[in-house]
Amino acid sequence: MEFLKGTKIFKVNDSNAILECSNILREGGVVAFPTETVYGLGANALDSKAVKRIFKAKGRPADNPLIVHIADLKQLNDLVTKIPKEVKLLSQKFWPGPLTLVLKKEDVVPEITTGGLDTVAIRLPGHDVALNLLQKSQLPIAAPSANLSGRPSPTTAQHVIADLAGRIEAVIDGGPTGIGVESTVISLVEEPPTLLRPGGITYEELKDLLGEVDIDSAVEAEIEDENRLALSPGMKYKHYSPDAEVLVIEGQRTKIANEIMTLTDQYLEEGLNVGVMATKENSDSYTKSQVKVMGNRSNLMEISSNIFRLLREFDEMEVDIILVEGLSTIGLGLAIMNRLRKAAGYQIINV
């Protein structure tokens, strides 16, 4: 264990990590920990003062709801007023895992945790560290991504430390996360169920299991609706953005490459430092800019695991603008493009 500006850094193989961090949580503290999606910033979901500290540490708007993490399906009985039939189907297939269910909340869940809503977002994570921490603390843990609000989500403990050192009690370093984008969020408070945020569980998988599933307009949006109510994390406010300006170029693969090369020439003439987030198939095309490869277009899991890390690396390189190749929105591509469009502030060029 080491200290950084008052924040304890535990290695995942530290035998005291889970015990000490569970004690911190029970005492009203805030702890960052790895999940299979991104690093979460956790506090006792039923303790309003503790949850308030999450919002303060992140600089998160108070009407942006949090996800409550549980270790056992039985905990739902204490947190929600009704368990729809779909919960059994979804939990049997996808829990533990990157799926969050929005349900009507019990009064025991404070409004600060739900962003003032009468619903609560709940998931059972599929990561040993997260599950061990939940089991040891014996608490439902509210945990958004462990980054400053608006920044790219953290996929390593180093990302957490860069944003939050000195703002929280502890970080458990469990190495890089696997999926790299936040959980899928589906609302079960209406019929049919509605996809509120795409993630590691795809829309196609949900539809295959449940039949009819609606997609909220915010999921595929190419423009921000600042006036709408945030029914789920990630639906409102600036998200996932590096310091550099981001521009997403969408369309056919060769046309995307040609447009990025044209834009690169224009920005270089203006004296700007240009970065390109490329797929492996196109990466050799960009000889004049600083290039980082997201992965193969045929391997969307590889790309999803890399996008937030690469956005942060471009900031370290102090590029002025990042040009990003768009992808298909089929399968995991929907979650990737949802994040990239938001990172760009919906600055999108279709070619």
Short description:
With 351 residues, the chain is α/β, with parallel strands linked by helices. The chain has helices spanning 17-26, 48-58, 76-79, 85-94, 111-114, 128-137, 157-164, 203-210, 253-269, 300-316, 333-343, and strands spanning 2-4, 7-11, 31-33, 40-44, 67-69, 99-104, 119-123, 141-142, 170-173, 184-187, 194-197, 214-215, 245-250, 274-279, 290-295, 321-325, 348-350. Strand 3 (31-33) and strand 4 form a beta hairpin.
Number of strands: 17
CATH homologous superfamily heading of the largest domain: DHBP synthase
Give a short account of the largest sheet. Answer: 12 strands, mixed
The computed structural class is alpha/beta
Q: What overall geometry do the principal axes of the alpha carbons give? A: globular
Distance between the first and last residues' Cα? 51 Å
Using only C-alpha atoms, the radius of gyration works out to 20 Å
At the third CATH level, what is the topology name of the largest domain?
Answer: DHBP synthase
Give the number of domains.
2
Unreliable stretches: none
What's the tally of helices?
11
Q: Helix and strand succession? A: EEHEEHEHHEHEHEHEEEHEEHEEHEHE
Fraction of residues in β-strands? 15-25%
Helix share, percent: 25-40%
Strand order of the largest sheet: 1-2-9-3-4-8-5-7-6-10-11-12
Mean pLDDT: 94
CATH architecture of the largest domain: Alpha-Beta Complex
CATH class category name of the largest domain: Alpha Beta
